[in-house]
Amino acid sequence: MKYMLRFIFSLSLVCVSLLGNAQTKDTAKVVYLERYGLRLGADLHKIARSFYEKDYRGFEVVGDYRLTKRFYIAGEIGNEDKTIDDDRLNFTTKGTYFKVGFDYNSFENWLDMENMIYVGMRYGVSSFSQTLNSYKIYDPSNYYGENTVISGEKFGGLNASWLEVIGGIKAELFSNVYLGFSVRLNYLVSNKKPDGFDNLFIPGYNRTYDGKFGAGFNYTLSYFIPIYKKNKTITEKK
Known about the structure:
Elements: H1 2-26, E1 28-43, H2 44-52, E2 56-66, E3 71-85, E4 89-105, E5 116-138, E6 146-174, E7 177-191, E8 201-202, E9 206-207, E10 213-236
């Protein structure tokens, strides 16, 4: 009986020791440096569109700065010059815009990867002008029933503001270079309209034919500039 008790006690000590080692392995921690910095780039869609669409010129610079593990300050600045030839009128919109807000990265990267699957918000403001190039009016004396009037009237000092809800991705192609895509749902907050005309297109916002709601997207190519690093600790399971 005495030897049996010794055996049980020894076996218990071995089991506790093994269990302790297993728990130590399960909670082993790995520490590595995580980079924080500024990412700058451009909207490839607007650049390409300026070449293949004769009535459009546009350019947009994009950027984000990493604040925490998940949150980024982000924004865009750009300009657009677009002529729209509609059924009833032809007009040109020219102006600049600025957007600022944040992105939240929901993607859990492996070790030193810095890809993003994110959601975010922006507040955008735009300053622009409208030029009414021509418009059509009904003319019963005309065989075709309408008459085209060449106008050229310009409306300046216009502005608008809006909110954007964003969803997108950014993936590293190679060292520090990222390709991104995002979709945007817009809600018009303010819109200074000219007398006798309407803002049918707003730089940075897009078309306004659907009332206060709009949509847009962009393709971006950007470069990451590391500024400092922080330790990141993860649990490694063995």
